[in-house]
Hints:
Fic-like fold, two-stranded antiparallel ribbon
Amino acid sequence: xxxxxxxxxxxxxxxxxxxxxxxxxxxxxxxxxxxxxxxxxxxxxxxxxxxxxxxxxxxxxxxxxxxxxxxxxxxxxxxxxxxxxxxxxxxxxxxxxxxxxxxxxxxxxxxxxxxxxxxxxxxxxxxxxxxxxxxxxxxxxxxxxxxxxxxxxxxxxxxxxxxxxxxxxxxxxxxxxxxxxxxxxxxxxxxxxxxxxxxxxxxxxxxxxxxxxxxxxxxxxxxxxxxxxxxxxxxxxxxxxxxxxxxxxxxxxxxxxxxxxxxxxxxxxxxxxxxxxxx
Length: 279
């Protein structure tokens, strides 16, 4: 059973260590953590997490909830795939046209890779290679982009201006330093959910890849949870929740600001609370 630990329950020494490690984070904001813990029912969150279990249809070689993650994360990006068809393809070997399943297969493989590997710089890059096998050119897979990046909407209007080509590498270096530090921090369930969502949000705002940023960010969120809380994390249907609340998901990302240098992470709480609400 996962037991939530708030700072008040830490010994003085442990709380000092936890707080001092937080202050060393270079890019992942900590300012909303206390408000986040007030807004999440820790006991209820722990109970819901403990109640998670795998689907009966899953086998040693097939994961239903990895299929859910792969399908709905892909649907967020505009892929026309339905869960029933993909489950038939992965679980029962029913053949579809390769173009219908290949990108979702790639993302499924990236989730599978994450389940047995530590979340770190080299493995995050490897996961991107897997999930972008049929999205970007081979020389761009797992590589930081070399040009400026703009996110546009369906009308072609600019929705967001990401970190520039001159700063993206330095921002990602800070991100990887923070991930390494967070991996070594002891934290309760509320802190884990907070930082998992922040990893998702900060990564997608940096937008380091030529493509596959959203897929990567949602994978990293789930990966972080699993590293901290165990395999039950893979049963959370967060990607499906984000898809079903797609406009809210995008609005909560958009509310931080239009351009990377002026992002206001004090507005991030609505986004952060979506993850615990997805259980």
